[in-house]
Amino acid sequence: MSNRDYSYDISDHSIEYVEVDPRAIKFDPRAQRSLNKARAQAIAEKLVPTALGTPILSRRDDGQYAVDGMHRVYACQLILAGNVNVRDKVREDVQTITCEIHSGLSMANEASLFIIKNKESSKVGPTDEFRIGVLAGHPLFVDTNIVLEKHQLKVGSRTTNAVRGIKGILDVVKEYGPNILDQSLAVAEEAWGRTPDTWHSVTIGGIAIVLNRHPDVVKPLELARKLKRQGDPLSFKAKIQTIATNGNTRLDGTKGRLKAAHLAVAAAWNSNRRVNRIPVPNIFE
Fold this sequence. Notes:
Layout: E1 14-20, E2 25-26, H1 37-45, E3 56-60, E4 63-68, H2 70-80, H3 88-93, E5 97-103, H4 107-119, H5 126-136, H6 139-150, E6 154-155, E7 162-163, H7 166-176, H8 178-192, H9 201-213, H10 220-228, H11 233-244, H12 254-270
Parallel strand pairs: 2-4, 3-5, 6-7
Antiparallel strand pairs: 1-5, 3-4
């Protein structure tokens, strides 16, 4: 387990509940997900004012900005602008809405607050959570981003320079620390070069487990050579999938694939080796 504290925290600040004109609320996409206008339109068309909830705002010098509930606020703006056909009673009820207003927050605080408010509900996609977490200055995301930037990698689509499955990458840092992620990415690139499949989070996770558990035995460059002999990264990923499903005879989940990746990487290290072998896990125990 990494000894770095990756918990969330925001310093004490003023919070109040106030009736606010939705039209006065502003948006800043830097500290939250991007506005999906189609989604807001759909919310507006079926809006039930009594079920609106309490949007969360940050009071800045130049106005009040939505931190959570952006799409609900924008839906109210659409209604009040006459862009949505709703009953007069609905339009009347959203002339003002009750909001939770936080004062004295920095931009980083706003980003942290957004993640805290949304994390348990899983409403935030992992890519957005990563982007906002970096802005918030949260150590987990910052430490991870430093390593990714070192390897000239971004988070996002399936490209040569983008990692796939950022949640799994974050888990590596959370469990083993950024140094192990750094070593794992270096091993993967040494083995397979820069391809979209090189950076698959499950494969990186398997490498990370082996490097973390056997630092005195497993040498990164030698492990890279061993992995290269297993075939290209897509073939290796397929091997992990086959192991995880026991030849398609059982279902697999993320934890199952990670255990299978551990097994596959450990087996690759042990291949044709009489000394310095490492234990191969029984993933079906």
